[in-house]
Amino acid sequence: MENKEQSNGEMKESKAMKKKLNWSGSLIVASLTGAFGSSFLYGYNLSVVNAPAVYIKKFYNETWERRYGFSVDESTLTLLWSITVSIFAIGGLVGAIIVTPIVKFFGRKCTLLLNNVFAVTAALLMSLSLLAGSFEMLILGRVIMGVDAGISLSALPMYLSEISPKEIRGSLGQVTAIFICIGVFTGQVLGLPEIFGQESRWPYLFGAIVVPSLIQVLILPFLPESPRYLLLEKHNTSKAEKAFQTFLGKDDVSHEVEEVLAESRVQRNTKLVSILQLLRTRAVRWQVVTVVVTMGCYQLCGLNAIWYYTNNIFSEAGISHETIPYVTLSTGAVETVAAVFSGLVIERLGRRPLLIGGFGLMIVFFAVLTVSLTLQNTVHWLPYLSIFCILAIIASFCIGPGGIPFVLTGEFFQQSQRPAAFMIAGTVNWLSNFAVGLLFPFIQSGLQTYCFLVFAAICFAGATYLFFVLPETKNKTFNEISQAFAKRNKVSLEMQEMNHYAGERKSSAEQESNFTSSVDNGETKKGIV
């Protein structure tokens, strides 16, 4: 009995030690640096335009009057401002579309580095627009910044999923969402009147974009490229082994190399798959549908509507107009804490509970918020309940729906399919973002406070789909995840191998032979894995 307890204790200690070893210094630095110059800037640019909105509109009006000799009418000013805000999503869509050939040619890390050209260019255009007296520079800067965001929200999750061990893949993947939240919060803080939220200082809010980009450019070049990219796409075994050693913090990486090669034997080729080819591949049909659903719900679940109502709800609660910017910081703080919490527990609880549970909690709080907003003029304490619901909805979103869709996209697909999958995910993400910005004012105008019931219905539909379709992917390899979907896709793992791009089997077999011979383990098997 004592020996059994001792054995169990040693096993637990071994697992804890293994998990600790997974977090090497290089892995942490790569994830933090990559996210700081990428998803952080996406979050920052979501919130940074809110604080100086009044001053930017005044700048538009003064520029118009100086050019044409009369003030711009209200409808034109509203249109210019709407374009300034929403055109960020158009740039994001462009970035999501062009990311696939870029990550294929330059690699994941180099794509993140080159993407800083867009960020710095956008920062210069937007920060100098007031000095140049050109609001077109600000709008163009927003477009270019959107392109940067579209590329980074695909390249960063791809990079993180490929450099992390499967035991911590979810936690590392959540770094994307955590830094989006930190970026939103930073934009709120820097927009305070005491910092850059003044008429003479608002250009500095956009100039600050340069700082994360420069930090990434200074640090990321000293870290390795994705080892999976090096091994499967560049066929460079020695560099891949060194990358694995750096990220895993150990010398013997033969197991990890063989695991990646096992994937290559199943997929039979490493040629980049197009979107059309991916959509036609039966073996990943439900994976693609799941990515579309999760990404669609990520944008359509109503969080943008919450930001729209926040100031009004705070005013109804008796908070003065001057104090609201400081109280709004609580939303950014809650968002960040919830995202960090999700990153800490995702490898214990799994993806399913956090994602489905997050949508479930949002449904509940949307329903309560609808009731409290409808009746808030009849009961004096209901505005405070509305504030609580807003914070609860934000927290519910960030513990699951706010980050896990990016993790799942990296986990569902094999190396040759991943860029196309992220292009699909990014396209759905940005089109949904644009649709919300375009349609929400009409929904809000027609339904008033009942508009939240529309978002509750979307959350319910998403949660129901995920409950019946989504398998748990925690600690699973690509092959294991494919097997979990195989029955629903009506294919077996063996059938996937036999039918996967049959026309390229000869070149694939040659690649496999090259891969296998490059690893000095004496194995030359070419059977089905």
TrEMBL record:
InterPro entries: GLUT (IPR045263), MFS_dom (IPR020846), MFS_sugar_transport-like (IPR005828), MFS_trans_sf (IPR036259), Sugar/inositol_transpt (IPR003663), Sugar_transporter_CS (IPR005829). Residues 31-474 form the Major facilitator superfamily (MFS) profile domain. One of its GO terms (molecular function) is D-glucose transmembrane transporter activity. It is found in: Membrane. Its main location: membrane. Residues 510-521 have a biased composition (Polar residues). It is a multi-pass membrane protein. The chain crosses the membrane at residues 21-42, 79-100, 112-133, 139-160, 172-190, 202-223, 288-309, 324-346, 353-375, 381-408, 420-441, 447-470. Keywords: Membrane, Transmembrane, Transmembrane helix, Transport. It holds the Pfam family Sugar_tr. Residues 503-529 are annotated as: Disordered. GO terms for cellular component: plasma membrane. GO terms for biological process: D-glucose import; dehydroascorbic acid transport. Belongs to the major facilitator superfamily. Sugar transporter (TC 2.A.1.1) family. PANTHER family: SOLUTE CARRIER FAMILY 2 (PTHR23503), SOLUTE CARRIER FAMILY 2, FACILITATED GLUCOSE TRANSPORTER MEMBER 9 (PTHR23503:SF35). This is GTR9 protein. It comes from Pluvianellus socialis. The gene is Slc2a9_0.
